[in-house]
């Protein structure tokens, strides 16, 4: 029988590993997978949040959702994750690289802002952020993507940011009454990690195209999560749609990119940011 359009979005029986799956957006990616009939696996470094997220998903969607405490910066940890998933489900179909060390500049006090300026940015922080955000993606693709390529099928989705496409507008992070050289800024590592992810997406998309492993990225804009009115006002002035994203607003795009609905797409970067990069 010919497939209907909704069938292309169906994930029945498909197993999806979500790194950083216990965080704000990771849980939403997991919901999207489960709502389309798939099986999300929460792979996060935070043990209590991992257990809580996987239990809640299992209960809410009546799905056998495994929570595996994983550190994406450690190859052995990712190898352990993959073997646990293969033992349990006998397959892995989807990898969502979502984990990040994500300091929220808009929520930090002055002590952390001291180091966030480029001139004083400590090498250890640069190395830690790149290790989680970029090396972690490299390692997960190397371990899990290589397994997919060997089996001749798989989908990888890298969660980047609108700041992979444009530079941060540092004016929105400014705080009244602070000297120029201690004004908070979005850390340099955020731009570098997210831009690097797009490069890795293109590299692997072509590298594994013949192996039937598709690799795409999504570049989301900021999600409203209780930020101050002042910050929200400054940010939304830069967004044609005049608002931040709702936390559920990326679920449709995630489902599109991990399902057969995007079967002819690889190496792409779906920019979803209320039009911010268009201005
Ligand atoms: N929230 C936003 O507004 C927004 C906007 C654009 C892009 N993003 C991107 O979306 C992704 C998720 O963001 P979020 O807002 O849900 O962040 P979050 O901080 O809520 O979640 C990140 C998760 O990653 C986990 N993690 C950190 N280090 C890890 C490691 N070494 N191994 C495994 N897991 C680790 C954390 O425990 C946490 O659960 C990030 O890549 C972020 O950059 C977020």
Task: Compile the SSE list and pairings.
Layout (H helix, E strand, L loop, with lengths): L14 E5 L4 H12 L3 E6 L2 H15 L5 E3 L5 H15 L4 E4 L12 H7 L6 H29 L2 E6 L28 H20 L5 E8 L8 H8 L14 H8 L10 E4 L7
Parallel strand pairs: 1-2, 1-4, 2-3, 4-5, 5-6, 6-7
Helix pairs in contact: 1-8, 3-5, 5-6
Structure write-up:
By secondary structure, the chain is α/β, with parallel strands linked by helices. Helix content is 41%, strand content 13%. Strands 3-2-1-4-5-6-7 form a 7-stranded parallel sheet, sandwiched between helices. Strand 5 (154-159), helix 6 (188-207) and strand 6 (213-220) form a beta-alpha-beta unit. The chain is globular, with a radius of gyration of 19 Å. The N and C termini lie far apart (45 Å). Bound molecules: nicotinamide-adenine-dinucleotide. Nicotinamide-adenine-dinucleotide (NAD) binds at residues 19-20, 22-26, 44-46, 49, 70-73, 98-102, 132, 136, 159, 161, 220, 222-223.
> β content, as a range?
5-15%
Principal-axes shape call: globular
In terms of per-residue confidence, which ranges show pLDDT below 50 for 5 or more consecutive residues? none
**What's the story with the biggest beta sheet?**
7 strands, parallel
How far apart the termini lie comes to: 45 Å
Task: Specify Rg, calculated over alpha carbons.
Answer: 19 Å
Mean pLDDT: 95
Small molecules held by this entry: nicotinamide-adenine-dinucleotide
- Strand order, main sheet: write it out: 3-2-1-4-5-6-7
The counted number of beta strands is: 7
Total of helices: 8
Structural class comes to alpha/beta
How much helix, percentage-wise, in residues? 40-55%
């Amino acid at each position: 029988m010919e497939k209907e359009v909704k069938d292309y979005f169906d994930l029945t029986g498909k197993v999806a590993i979500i790194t950083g799956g216990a965080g704000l957006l990771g849980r939403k990616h997991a919901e999207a997978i489960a709502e389309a009939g798939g099986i999300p696996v929460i792979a996060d470094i935070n043990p209590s949040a991992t257990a809580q997220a996987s239990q809640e998903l299992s209960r809410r969607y009546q799905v056998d959702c495994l929570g595996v405490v994983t550190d994406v910066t450690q190859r052995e940890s990712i190898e352990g994750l993959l073997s646990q998933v293969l033992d349990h489900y006998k397959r892995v179909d989807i990898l969502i690289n979502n984990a990040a060390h994500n300091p929220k500049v808009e929520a930090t006090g002055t002590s952390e802002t001291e180091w966030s300026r480029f001139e004083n940015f400590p090498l250890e922080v640069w190395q830690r952020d790149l290790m989680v955000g970029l090396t972690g993606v490299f390692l997960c693709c190397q371990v899990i993507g290589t397994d997919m390529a060997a089996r001749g099928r798989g989908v990888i989705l890298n969660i980047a940011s609108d700041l992979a496409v444009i530079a941060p507008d540092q004016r929105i992070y400014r705080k009244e009454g602070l000297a120029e050289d201690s004004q908070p800024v979005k850390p340099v590592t955020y731009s570098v990690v997210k831009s690097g992810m797009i490069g890795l997406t293109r590299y692997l998309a072509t590298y594994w195209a013949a192996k039937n492993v598709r690799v795409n990225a999504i570049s989301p804009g900021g999600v409203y999560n209780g930020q101050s009115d002042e910050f929200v006002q400054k940010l939304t002035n830069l967004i044609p749609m005049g608002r931040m994203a709702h936390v559920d607003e990326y679920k449709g795009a995630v489902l599109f990119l991990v399902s057969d609905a995007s079967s002819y797409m690889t190496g792409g970067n779906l920019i979803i940011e209320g039009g911010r990069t268009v201005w």
